[in-house]
Amino acid sequence: MALDDDLFWADSDSLEVWAPIHAWRVLGQLRAEAAVEPLLARLDLIDDDEGNDWVSEELPQVFAMIGAAAIAPLHVYLIDPSHDTWACVAAVESLGQIGKAHPEARNACVAALTGVL
Question: Model's pTM, two decimal places?
Answer without folding.
Answer: 0.94
